[in-house]
Write a structure and sequence with these properties.
The chain is of the alpha/beta class. Helix content is 24%, strand content 29%. Strand 21 and strand 22 form a beta hairpin. Bound molecules: alpha-L-arabinofuranose (AHR).
């Protein structure tokens, strides 16, 4: 049931009430050797007829540069705990063909896209590299050697090898995951056993390079507490606690109204997971060290994105509006969340870019990232809604997971927003989550009120089920117009249904 008041909803942006800095890493990405994310999506190889830069698709690289990719996590995912980095260095022709497994897909791994290639991609798109290490089938020595190979500056055999392989300077990789999902695909540990392994691996990784930011693998509240209590005497070894959040409902594109709203409520699960982890971390660390929450895999996992179709699915406007809600959560929690990486950057799951042969198109989720990019490095501002319309969930539709995405007793706000300030410039993003109705709002500012003209960027689409495809690449896109700020510093806006808008002032 939808509850709309006759009063016009008001969004107040408090320009002098800041919640912290929005780290660009909150808009990060994830590329796994899974399905067609890396091979055939990002990587086509130097011999391909598809234009490429050292093997990476030029059109994909150009699109990623446009939105700015602040961080890229690689090579897994579940792939990480069976990956041996030495297989992916040295002359291509002598790299071994190995057998790789992730998420039920077994493939021959050519090892063409290895460490040097990945770092070259990161440099090309301006991303901070984040490497996920192998704990499950690896050794502390192997991971320590990878850190040494990438970051070393001394005249050692490993550093000489890196130089001989074409990279004279340190690769300076700061972020290292100590395994991935080690409660499951990363070795099926229990929390206490993983804590022992974590201490062991992180000790040697940090000994090799004390600037490394190490990420420990979390799961649910019980695992996270056991793990962090076991590490509480060794907080110097931990910088980030990883949590993963996925959810899905119904068909990717032919969904019901209830399924539309179910997906949009994923942000409530993200916020609950973040809040629970933040409270636990503050209790367990007793303020001795700030451990960041690394939401290093998040996104919508449609039920038909399974192993038998390489985890691919149509990506609609619904997914983009849901992503906007997640960004609003991340901006609210920017003091506690240290990074967030959507799963995954190309083709797999909630991809930003999809490819088929030489064709490439941008998904609505790509445009959500574009619309939120102006917030990077801004000071997150407190926003408050008054008289916002809400909707009670009547059901969930079919094939929903997990069951506890939202609190069924609470109504869902049909609008969502976040705002930031960078010097004299303000950015405000607002989404209308109503499936079919426009919503009129008034936007006002408390503190310094802007004046003059503002740029308004809007995700334009004719349906919540709209998607781009090889044949229709611009059905969903972003248009820019301008709006005037009223004499009282307020702005009246009509938000189209299922839309995201970003207003840029100053
Ligand atoms: O992103 C797909 C998979 O989801 C990753 O490999 C794994 O970490 C998670 O379960």
């Amino acid at each position: 049931m939808t509850s709309t008041s006759k009063l016009v909803p008001t969004l107040t942006v408090r320009t002098d009430d800041t919640l912290g800095t929005i780290s660009p890493l909150l808009h990060g990405h994830f590329a796994e050797h899974l399905g067609r994310c890396v091979y055939d999506g990002l990587w086509v190889g130097t011999g391909s007829s598809i234009p490429n830069m050292g093997g990476w698709r030029s059109d994909v690289v150009a699109a990623l540069k446009k939105i700015g990719v602040p961080m890229l996590r690689w090579p897994g995912g579940c792939f990480a705990d069976s990956y041996h980095w030495r297989d992916g260095i040295g002359p291509m022709e002598s790299r071994p063909r190995t057998f790789a497994e992730s998420c039920g897909i077994n493939v021959v791994e050519t090892n063409e896209a290895g460490t040097h290639e990945f770092i070259a991609l990161c440099r090309a798109i301006g991303a901070e590299p984040y490497l996920a290490g192998n704990v499950g089938s690896g050794t502390p020595q192997e991971l320590m050697d990878w850190v040494h190979y990438c970051n070393g500056t001394a005249d050692t055999t490993l550093v000489r090898e890196r130089i001989a392989n074409g990279h004279p300077e340190s690769m300076n990789v700061r972020y290292w995951g100590i395994g991935n999902e080690n409660w499951g695909c990363g070795g099926n540990y229990d929390a206490a056993a993983y804590a022992v392994e974590y201490r062991r691996f992180a000790t040697f990784v940090k000994q090799m390079d004390s600037r490394v930011q190490a990420v420990t693998c979390g799961l649910d509240p019980a695992w996270n507490r056991t793990l962090m209590e076991a590490l509480s005497g060794k907080l110097g070894l931990v910088d980030h606690l990883s949590i993963h959040t996925y959810w899905g409902a119904g068909h990717a594109a032919e969904f019901t109204e209830e399924e539309y709203y179910y997906i949009l409520r994923g942000d409530e699960k993200v916020e609950r997971d973040v809040r629970t982890a933040a409270e636990m971390l503050s209790e367990v660390t007793e303020g001795k060290k700030k451990i960041g929450i690394a939401l290093d895999e998040w996104g919508i996992w449609h039920p038909q994105a399974r192993w038998d179709c390489d985890y691919e699915a149509t990506s609609t406007v619904r997914d983009a509006v849901a992503a906007a809600g997640v960004f609003d959560v991340l901006h609210r929690w920017c003091a506690d969340v240290s990074m967030a990486n959507i799963a995954q950057i190309v083709n797999v799951l909630q991809a930003l870019i999809q490819t088929k042969g030489a064709d490439m198109w941008l998904t609505p989720t790509y445009y959500a990232f574009a619309l939120y990019a102006p917030h990077q490095n801004g000071e997150s501002l407190r926003v408050e809604w008054k008289d916002a319309p809400t909707r009670s969930q009547e059901g969930t539709g079919s094939k929903t997971w997990p069951e506890s995405v939202f609190d069924a007793t609470s109504a869902m706000p049909l609008v969502s927003a976040s705002a930031s300030r960078k010097g004299g410039a303000l950015a405000v993003s607002v989404s209308n989550r109503h499936i079919s109705d426009p919503i009129d709002i008034v936007l006002r500012f408390e503190g310094a009120a802007p004046s003059g003209e503002a740029r308004l960027q809007t995700l334009v689409s004719d349906s919540p089920r709209a998607a781009n495809s090889a044949g229709e690449q611009d059905r969903v896109t972003v248009r820019e117009t301008s709006v005037s700020v009223g004499g009282d510093g307020a702005i009246a806006l009509t938000l189209p249904p299922h839309s995201i808008q970003t207003l840029l002032l100053g």
